[in-house]
Amino acid sequence: MKVLLLLIFLSPIISFSQQLFLPLNHNVNIDINKQVNYLNNNVHTSFKPVLSSYLNNYFDSDSIIYDYQRDSIFLSKKKHTWIWRKLRTEDLILIDTADFFLSINPMFNLEYGRNTINDSLLSVNTRGIAVKGNIGKTLSFYSDFYENQAFFPDYVHQYINEHAVIPGQGRNRGFKGNGHDYAYASGYLSFTPKKYLNFRIGHGKNFIGEGYRSLLLSDFSFNYPFVRTTITLNKFQYTSMFTAHQEIKSADSRLLAYQRKHGSFNYLSWLINKRIQIGLFEGIIWKTTYSNSNNNFDINYFNPAIMVRPLQYGLSDENNVVLGLNAEIKIINSIQLYGQYMLDDVINDYTGEKNGYQIGIKFFEIFKLKNLYLQAEYNSVSPYTYGHVDHFQNYSNANEPLAHPLGANFKEVIGIMHYKINDFFIDFKYIKSNINTSLNNYHCGSNIFLSDTLACELIQTNDIKYLKSTLTYISLRLGFLINPRNNMHLFAGFVNRKFINNSITTETNYIFLGIRASLNNHYYDF
Question: What global pTM score does this model have?
């Protein structure tokens, strides 16, 4: 953040998207996904976030996201006052010249609600700022910072106590009893020396796939440092990324509180034809920290070639290797099929084979109903997947899964609807998950943070040592978009969550309203 601010003020006063990336936000990107699904737009989009300048070769991605209010019922062709423009259509601070672009916007979330089950008051108070810009035509930068205080529903509060982090938002500090105080920041520099080549260095999140969830790499966990290189050559795109991760422990000693590990992720995308896109994925969590040394890198960590290291070491090495396939099929302009398959250890003496799969479908403006979006998705992950014999090598970051929020040993159905009329929108989400949770201190495959050596004998016997739990999550949100530049909107809605098994039944019924300006995904639907 300090580096970017210094760059801004020392540079001379630095067109719009250039080498900036689209935000990782499901709803913000719905119209982008609709354009991508047109058969005449044959583009690589599976490794997200996607570079705006790349998409602009096919359609104007900037106007799709930021000129959303061209259909606003509250805007006319007449010129409005400065205050009205800043509130409704423009960045708060904007400098735009031939060689320099800079925008600064406030980011916030003021949300208040009540859990009607136990009559508890809930709230989120977030204040932040986002800065982005371009220097010339090849270099872009982005940075944001958020300060937060919150009182969450009971199930989120329990998650925070167990994991010592806010879901996807970093380490927790106590606040007024049951409250939580936390701060987080992200940012990146993006450099494109050639049209086909992009370098991105930053601290943030990435996502692989076309689904709401990802079984390969998702944006659920907290931000992490990364270096990402993307080469695009017509029908082929290759991305190689190196990352740093840490596990957070409750001990006060900083030596014990942080356990460092590193990751490498390679993804090869192939546009077979105008309808079909497939991708090959390789992710490795490397063992780089030992009892007597830190940052102990194997030279092969720096090898960017996909599949070389799994072939060399196999899938049962001390480094945790995850392989996967990703696919997208455009049925017609308004219908898209997508799916994933992932494979962890093929042979594991403790757990057996580990794998998972996803299948989903998207509908854009189906039934010729403008701005209607529908999505259905199914995810299934076998027991012990993403875990490892060395529990420090699990597929995680900051005490959270790098893939699906539920970890492993579950089956999940998701239904999503998003519909907008001018500035108004409605979001509906239904999620039902069948989760096999461990019983009586057994490790039966749902907790990816435990060592595989603790696996129960469920594989070899019929002795059931887990609870069959059902999680149902339903949310409805109504909103009014104020300014698309920072996604500022008014909203109100409710969430109903039920968790049921033979031992316990818990329910949350949360009614809320507020005003928010945010471009990030935050997940509480687990």
Answer: 0.91
